[in-house]
Design goal:
alpha+beta; 3 helices; 3-stranded antiparallel beta sheet
């Protein structure tokens, strides 16, 4: 996690970057988990970082904010309760109201087993209002693409690893489209990015592994350069 954050800082994260590293507890809490108060650049409710690591990261993020003008906060929580990680991250972002450049947002969610979500875009309204969700269905991914706007939008689904798949899906105004993404040949690991034609900056990256209850294999794409991020 520390290496991933430092790579993002070195690259100069635009506008707003919030990172959520989730260290799962043995039993998930029931109901909605309260959003922690924003007390600094590093909020660790899991004791993942020792005092020296937390202080060093706090200093790095404070320096980054002074140099770039962008706020970065790292939140580590033991559970998101009954909410999905994306829904909990959305509530945290809304509650904290971090300042950024214009209406840009840049959200990272990091978790165990390679779990990675990177969500970027602009908060300003657009005639097309796309959003993307993923669910685990019988060892595969089910990608739900929504359009709550008044114009159709073309979404491009592109694999970053394991396969060379690329799909173009047009989602009409006010409708949804669902596509199944097979993980049989990747030992149930996945890494893909969804972008929207005509919406610069809109990007949803999903990576991780679907647990099936069977013996797992190490990530076949482990090592090498970072994938799936804009150059």
């Amino acid at each position: 996690m520390m290496r991933s954050l430092r790579r993002a800082l070195a690259a100069g994260a635009p506008a707003l970057l919030a990172a959520f590293a989730l260290a799962w507890s043995a039993a998930a809490a029931e109901g909605e988990v309260a959003v922690p108060k924003l007390t600094g650049h590093v909020i660790d409710q899991t004791a993942t970082l020792d005092r020296a690591q937390a202080a060093a990261l706090e200093a790095d993020l404070a320096d980054f904010e002074r140099a770039r003008g962008s706020q970065v906060v790292v939140l580590l929580v033991p559970t998101t309760g009954t909410e999905t990680i994306e829904d909990f991250a959305g509530r945290v972002t809304d509650a904290w109201q971090l300042d950024g450049d214009g209406d840009d947002y840049d959200l990272w969610v990091l978790g165990p087993a390679g779990f990675h979500r990177h969500i970027t875009g602009r908060a300003t309204p657009h005639a097309a209002a796309p959003e993307v969700d993923v669910a685990y269905v019988r060892g595969d991914l089910e990608i739900a693409m929504h359009n709550r706007g008044v114009e159709p939008i073309e979404l491009v689904l592109r694999a970053n690893a394991y396969t060379a798949e690329e799909h173009h899906v047009v989602v009409p105004a006010g409708q949804d489209r669902v596509r199944r993404w097979s993980l049989e040949r990747s030992a149930h690991w996945y890494d893909l990015t969804v972008e929207a034609r005509g919406l610069p900056g809109f990007r949803r990256r999903f990576a991780g592994r679907v647990e099936t209850g069977r013996d797992s294999l190490s990530d076949p794409a482990m090592g090498g350069p970072a994938r799936g991020e804009p150059g």
